[in-house]
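Sanity check

After download, print the first record. It should look like this:
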Amino acid sequence: MERKAPHEVQMVTAALENAGFEAYIVGGCVRDMLLGRDPNDWDVTTNATPEQVQKVFPDSVYENDFGTVGIKTEADDDALKIVEVTAYRIEGRYTDKRHPDAIRFAKTLEEDLSRRDFTINACAARIVDGAVETIVDPFGGQDDLHAKIIRTVGRAEDRFGEDALRMLRAVRFAAQLGFDIDPQTQKALAHDAALLAHISQERIRDEFSKLIMTPQAAWGVQMLHSTELLRFIIPELIEGIGMMQNKHHIFSVWEHNLRALDYAVSKNYSFEIRLASLLHDVGKPRTKHGDGPDATFYAHEIVGGRMTKKILERLRYSHHVIEHVTHLVRYHLFYYNVGEVSEAGVRRFIVRVGSESIDDLIKVREADRIGSGVPKAVPYKLRHLLFMIEKVKRDPISPKALKINGSQLMELLGIGPSPRVGHMLNALLEEVIDNPARNTEEYLGKRAQELSALSNIELEALRAKAEAAKEEFEGAAETEMKRKHHV
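Expected structure tokens:
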């Protein structure tokens, strides 16, 4: 099948060749085209120096030390608005295991390809009349594509010694493409795993995030463990290996977490849900009491939430990712049983977990269930909870929904701003959560006057009572459920 390059890429390579230089597309775009996939990025390599490239393209950008010039185009596609052209180059030693100490420009394409990470990324192709022709493949990349093998260019130890992040990339490419890792390459991964300590947490985070979004993310995490790389990323997960649970679980904590992730991937859930599914039981090893069928893991969701926050902070994830994933882990073990939790309890559940988080929380719960080996992701109890949430979600569950606000309260009672105002609003909200019919100006005004007669101690007691009411989902009924199911 004839393969065509985008017009913008054709224009760049043709202009370089017309100026007397060599020009090839290279790397991932060639790999993807050979696999019959649409490339996301297009890279061009040439024997022209950056200065010579700039003469061919006067309106170009050259602001780096790696010989890469950005060629501006008029493409509508953001991925093609800048086509990167890099001079053939050879890299020097990598003292910090991350960046070359120096680079020098090479004379031949083969020299340039020899510095690349994996054989499948070390192919180049010339474009002739818009069609991709003349594949240059000095390291057997096409054979490895057909065999579905990830193999380094040359000695794996040399490639990983140059840039230790390539070890994570090997696993990620394998999980992304559904390939195996060459035995010698895999052996080098385990041998050189400690080199990952030289890599910044931000670079590790970015590569790990890409892995989590691959079709075989669970396999990838397993491979990270098999090659000793996981202990430099999320060593806390390793604590669950071989740790059996109890009579309600047929898998170890480690296997359960991987199966939960695999379910989230199979449903094409978001990055945050996949990460929460992987980490949802990370706290179990540190909360286990007893052995055998009656072992317990009380409060593992609370411990797991704290651990998740530390893990994601260490990996330098954004504030949003940290807070959302931690929240999902913390509340993944919510309790609901038909007939045991009232509508008011469901409203308080929505208040506590946040209406914006409920859908994601339910999805993590699905992953948890399937990861435990049960046949149904959404049993009757969960479906009934969704029905109840739909039923009460329009009821007042926040101070903003009250028919009286702080200013009106102060005017009615003739008082100024003080903590008492907030205490009274919270007390009124609790009454409305119990019975939405109370959310009228008449009732709330009358009740506010009654509350204003209470002392600070009495108002504080009401606040404490309200806090206790908020725990209906984790109160006596859930304690009994946890005792019964050893969770």
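If your output differs, re-run the checksum step. Summary of this record's structure: The CA atoms of residues 5 and 130 lie 6 Å apart.
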